[in-house]
Amino acid sequence: MLTAADIMTPDIVTIPRDKLVCEVEGIFVSRDISAAPLVDELGDTTEFITKSDINRFHFTDGDPDYTQAWEIANPNVITIDASASIEEAAGLMVDKHMHHLLVVDEDGVAGLLSSFDFIKLASGKWQVKETKPGT
Q: Taking a C-beta distance cutoff of 8 angstroms, is the pair 102, 74 a contact?
């Protein structure tokens, strides 16, 4: 059985919640990502921001040079346990109308699962992630 941990992206970018929207846009471009959890000064996830949030913000003529990321982000961070099956993860994404799930384990945030991960799996382009010796 494949799990959320098997197909997730383990090394995710987190962004301080008080970053300006223009800075978040730069991070998305430079890191080639479309979503990221926002974290507070303690490193705890507080919100989740996506390119869609930023696009909606621009559509309303918001000013990215004066607006902080948390102001436009989704405060409803949806998580799933790393050991959950991919079927359970897919069902949760469909039920919640979300393209991203934060994957958690006993140590906290383990990675990010996106609808693109499922597309890679279905297309045969998904590859087993190698684990490092001793981990």
A: no
88: domain CATH number is 3.10.580.10
Region of residue 134 (left: phi > 0; alpha: psi -120 to 50; beta: else): left
What is the domain range of residue 23?
A: 4-123
Domain total in the chain: 1
Residue 115's SS3 state is helix
Rounded Cα–Cα distance for residues 18 and 40 (Å): 8
**pTM of the model as a whole:** 0.84
- Rounded Cα distance between 30 and 49, Å, is 16
133 has a pLDDT exceeding 50: no
